[in-house]
Design a protein that fits this description.
4 helices; 5-stranded antiparallel β-sheet; Aminopeptidase; alpha+beta; about 20% strand; disordered N terminus
């Protein structure tokens, strides 16, 4: 929420963040390094995206979604995600293998608080993609973009402040499909 002084009234008016116009999130066509590529969710990702939930029956429950997505709902989500980004509200990204382009998982940016210059980041990976540091690499690419190019975040801290405890096993490189969020503040 933001606070503004009422014109000549001496009263404080509180405006919810969601009621104020938000800048569009202009995510680049892709972010990549030697191992992972991150880009916006596309309708063509539907088979692999839905397939990850079939490969890990617990994934939807761990993410707190009421039912696992099917291909039709993923295609619909891709269209809605474009609108969400234009409204500065949320961005749905996919994590792909940098060499093959195969879908490895997803990253969501939500709860943009532009007045406070922060948002939340959450991710999941296909079971076959876990345990290789790919979530760390993909998240680092997105966090670096948030701090340098998005105009959203400002801080001296460039890495997530908290992660789901089970993800921290094996020296922090085994990031599994447990919900994770970072307040980039």
């Amino acid at each position: 929420m933001s606070s503004e002084q009422g014109a000549g009234s001496g009263e404080l008016t509180v405006t919810p963040e969601a009621a104020r116009p938000q800048p569009a999130v202009d995510f680049p066509p892709q972010l990549d390094d030697a191992e992972v590529l991150v880009r916006q969710l596309a309708e063509s990702d539907a088979p692999a995206y839905a397939g990850a939930f079939r490969a890990d029956p617990d994934l939807g429950r761990l993410l707190g979604i009421p039912r696992d997505p099917d291909e039709a709902s993923v295609r619909e989500a891709a269209a809605l995600a474009r609108e969400g980004a234009l409204q500065g509200r949320w961005v749905e990204l996919v994590v792909c293998d940098a060499t093959t382009g195969g879908l490895l998982g997803a990253i969501g940016l939500t709860d943009f608080a532009w007045g406070h210059r922060r948002c939340e980041l959450g991710y999941w990976l296909h079971p076959a993609a876990r345990g290789h540091g790919r979530a760390v690499r993909a998240s680092a690419l997105v966090v670096d973009w948030l701090f340098s190019g998005a105009g959203c975040c400002a801080s001296s801290s460039r890495r997530p402040r908290r992660t789901w405890p089970p993800n921290a096993s094996r020296s922090g490189s085994d990031l599994s499909a447990r919900p994770s969020s970072a307040h980039a503040t």
